[in-house]
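Notes on consecutive records. When two proteins share a document, each keeps its own sequence and its own token line. Never mix them. Below: protein one.
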Amino acid sequence: MARNDPQLKLRLTEELKDKIVEAAKANGRSVNSEIAYRLEESLLFEEMQQEAFAPLSDDYIKRELDWQPVDGDQPITRSEHLAITGVMLDQHFQQFGAEMITQIKKLLEKK
């Protein structure tokens, strides 16, 4: 990181700071680089999760099941969503799991 990169003040507990310092030493990074690396990784992982599970949204489930609303139909309930999602997770797990593993491997190769 260059000296002209934006700076951010951050308050941490002493315990968390110590963990970050230890991790930075173990990974051969500066404390700043360790914090930036971990933030980037957590945001990327969150992005990957959202992409992987986007097909399990209510709209997707309704489309996949050819669900057509009828006058008076109520929105899908949370328990119905969870039941349908469970079935769909089984169907999509291998595909998305493999894609996530591939992405993680690519990330690790970059480091």
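Protein two starts on the next line and is unrelated to protein one.
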Amino acid sequence: MIIITNTFFSTQPIPGSRRLTMTVAHDLEGAQTEEAMRILERLVPDALNSAGPGVRSRFDNAVLNIAVNRIVEVEGGPRTATILMRLAEVIAQERRPVPGTPIDLTRLDG
């Protein structure tokens, strides 16, 4: 499963730790994203059961459209294009993020 989260950068150390807040932000954001995904996974089956077969067959496309439009609204067109190109590259390469080390989707390689 690929989890897309925003990246928070900070060079401020956590008191009593050598870890940087960047790591904590990723951990917290990743956990919050996973919780949001669990909520949607619980809600979607009921919503689909009440929809007709034509709507059910178009559901994945509808979710993708909503997600892309929300990203464009927040990030703007050029940054969204970079994120989506990077996501396509990561999927094509069958790369999987390592826990605590998400794959950066905000910059193209090379």
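For the record: The helical segments are 21-49, 53-57, 59-75, 77-92.
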